[in-house]
Amino acid sequence: MFVTVTELHISLLSFSRKVSLLVTLVGGIVILGWAYDLELLKSVLPGLVTMKVNTAIGFILIGVSLQLWHSPQKIYTGHLLISQCHSYLAGIVILLALLTSVQYIFKINLGIDELILRDAFNPVETTFPGRMAPTTALNFLLLGLALLLIKKRIYSLAQGFAFASFLISLLEFIGYLYQIRDFYHFGSGTSMALHTSVTFLTLSLGILSACPMQGWVNVITSPYAGGVTARRLLPITISLPLLLGGSFLFAHRIYILPIEVGVMSRSIINILILGSVTWWNARFLNQLDFKQQQTELALRQAQDQLEMKVKERTAELAASHNSLYKSYQLLNSVIEGIPEPVFVKDRAGYYVLANTAMAETLKKPVEEIIGKNDWDLFTSEVTQTLVNTDFRIMHSGKTQVIEEQFMNEDITQTFLSTKTPWRDIEGNVVGLIGVVRDITDRKQAELATQQLNELLEQRVKERTTKLVAANQELETFSYAVSHDLRTPLRSINGFSKALLQYTDQLDDKGKHYLDRIRVATLRMNELIDDLLMLAQITRHEIKHTPVDLSAMVEEIASHLNSIEPEREVEWVIASNIVAIGDKRLLRIVLENLLNNAWKFTSTRSQARIEFGEMAVSEEMLEEISDRTTSTYFVSDNGVGFDMSYADSLFKPFQRLHHANEFPGTGIGLATVQRIIHRHSGRIWATGVIDQGTTFYLDL
Q1: Which of 668, 671, 677 is nearest to 542 (CA)?
Q2: What is the per-residue pLDDT across 300-352, written as a single tens digit (0 to 9) for each?
Q3: CB 291 within 8 A of CB 225
Q4: Closest CA to 231 of 11, 413, 46, 474
């Protein structure tokens, strides 16, 4: 049966513990009274019966026994000894009561009455010196048995014995209270002392309160209507009859009220009191019944509302379940539709989901994967790596992409695994989600490509070595040829100068031939210089620095104006144009381009040469470079050229105009292109015959 523990139960248990201490204290005080012959402690008031030494010892033993019974039941160490001491002390009290009763019944003296201390000479209301009253022995017997029965959990009988002791003690106390000697003195035996009866009353109530949740006492202490009614009636039932009886007895003794009038008056008063109490309890029960009906009505309404809410919630749950089922089906279809293996693990590493691709990769059915961990599916070396990786990802809470290798039938397979933490609705990491892609073929292709690249790099190195050697040989040859060519040229030029001294001996035709020889030697010398410059540009080390192109163009223009001051040339030079490149080589580029513009505008009476910077269109940007958004240009209004020959502009020795019209070697633009290429740039040109030319370059 379920028992509700209330504050009343707790209070009664506390009262029982305090009673055990009080009874033990009373016994000890009485012992001190006997030891020091203090009448106040032995009999409370002069002329009253004393509490005997054995009675005081009995109170000490039974008080300690009750206190031991209340010891905490959860203390296992020494609990058996405590339980045994409780029983032993109760047994000693029972033995003491039985031996005293035997002495009264068989009229013998067993020598136990004055075993510790002797009684006073001629004690009050005492038949045998030191012997407790028969009712005292009976109370000790009843209460000792009650303590033993409580230990055996026979609560109702134990409480019955305690209540019997309470009634006996109450009778003794009433005898003292209303001076009715027959109530506390029976036959020729010793009378019970006043404080003995009070102590027994208190002790009986303490034992009744020791188990307030069991036995018939639980009916009185229960929180239900019966218990509440009993607690309301018992004080009136016990106190009013005693008070009324005592009052009429006192009135009769002083002859105020005749006995017949007193008896009938008491009956009438009892009727009034009992009627009032009956009406009071009826009113109380009606209130309880009304409250119960109201509660039942509220419960029925609450139940109806609850049933309605349950139906609504059931419908919501059904709809939610259908939605979750559809979501699950959709998720399952998506996962199954993914060609790569997909899996989900819980935080302990056990698989809770795996798609068909995962099963095919592991060559196991899905049913044999779910509920297993990596230790069940892979070797110990592979598993340890997987466990460490998974723990690191779950601990960091961040998605990671990892390459993992596994041995499968003596073949090393490489997988690219994307692993992300699996979180619950509160954001806590509860597992791991993984998508695996087999990149074995790609890794093999990368390895083959790497090997091919290494082979190509080796071949490039070999070719580069050969090319460097060839360039060195070509450069050496160029220097040798230029040196060998300059020697006869110097001889021809020298002899030509010498022949000029004999012009008076040459006719006009000889003089013409001599001029042609000198012009050819000078052109050959220029050609050798241009070839050497072209060769030097190839091996010149590039030094990138900021170069002020505008200032450089102005210097070159000033130099050209000083050479032919009679020419009228309009120079348009944009200011503050700065580029990053090799200053020496960029000067060669601008000198060649500006010299060409100066040369090919020589036939114009109003020549115009322009240098500037322009934005590059998207079409031109796609064509020339993806690293710059501007380009530089040099334009003129000279003779121009046919665009069909644009590809020949930058080839060595390729000339679009005859040397008789415009002198030159045909090496300059080839040199310019090589410098621009060494700057990782590009140069190109546009032109229209007899309208001019524009050269574009970017670095």
Answers
A1: 677
A2: 888 888 888 888 888 888 888 788 778 777 777 878 778 888 889 998 889 98
A3: no
A4: 11
Q: Which run of H or E residues covers position 371?
A: none
Nearest alpha carbon to residue 581 among 683, 490, 649: 683
Cα first-last separation, the chain: 100
Q: What is the pTM of this model?
A: 0.45
Q: State the CB neighbour count (10 A cutoff) for residue 326.
A: 10
Q: Which structure tokens are listed for 434?
A: 């993984």
Which tokens sit at 460? 């490039």
SS3 content of the chain, % helix, strand, coil (to 5): 65, 10, 25
Distance (Å) of CA 470 to CA 549, 570, 671: 35, 46, 20
Antiparallel, parallel or unpaired: β 607-615 and 545-548: unpaired
CB 596 within 8 A of CB 668: yes
Torsion sign across C-alpha atoms 133, 136, 141, 142? positive
- Provide the 3-class DSSP secondary structure of residue 605: coil
Residue-level pLDDT at 75 = 42
Kindly tell me if the per-residue pLDDT of 438 is higher than 80. Answer: no
- How far, in Å, are 364, 589, 662 from residue 369 at the CA level? 7, 73, 88
pLDDT tens figures, 509-553: 666 666 667 655 665 665 565 555 555 565 566 778 899 999 999
Q: What are phi and psi of 577, to 5 degrees?
A: -95, 115
Strand pairing of 569-573 and 607-615?
Answer: parallel
Q: In what order do the strands lie in the sheet with 411-423?
A: 351-354, 342-346, 429-438, 411-423, 400-408
Q: Which residue has the tokens 């045909």?
A: 666
Residue 648 DSSP one-character state: G
Burial letters 602-623, b for 16+ CB under 10 A, else e: eebeebbbbbbeeebeeeebee
Q: What is the per-residue pLDDT across 155-188, written as a single tens digit (0 to 9) for each?
A: 999 999 999 999 999 988 888 888 887 777 766 5
pLDDT tens, 57-106?
999 999 999 999 887 654 444 455 666 888 899 999 999 999 999 998 99
Contacts of 99 (CB under 8 A, 6+ apart): 110, 112
Give the percent of the chain with pLDDT over 90: 20
Q: Is the dihedral of CA 128, 131, 133, 134 positive or negative?
A: negative
pLDDT of 77 reads 45
Q: Are the C-beta atoms of 663 and 530 separated by less than 8 Å?
A: no
**pLDDT tens for residues 440-470?**
777 777 778 888 888 888 887 877 676 666 5
In Å, how far are 489, 637, 659 from 511, measured between CA atoms? 19, 38, 21
Comparing CA positions, the residue from 106, 179, 186 lying closest to residue 139 is: 186
Q: What is the DSSP letter of 190?
A: P
Say which range, 266-280, 290-304, 357-371, 636-650, has the weakest mean pLDDT. Answer: 266-280
CA separation, residue 212 to residues 21, 70, 661 (Å)? 19, 13, 136
**How does DSSP assign 77-131, residue by residue?**
TTHHHHHHHHHHHHHHHHHHHHHHHHHHHHT---S-TTSSSPPPSS-TT-SSTTP
Amino acid identity of residue 122, one-letter, is: N
293 vs 99, more confident:
99
Amino acid identity, residue 629? Answer: T
Sequence-separated (6 or more) residues with CB below 8 Å from residue 596: 668, 669, 693
What span, in angstroms and rounded, lies between the C-alpha atoms of 631 and 609? 17
DSSP 238: H
Q: Which range, of 77-81, 281-285, 390-394, 403-407, averages the lowest pLDDT?
A: 77-81
The structure tokens listed for 100 are 């005293």
Sign of the torsion angle spanned by Cα atoms 165, 171, 176, 177: positive
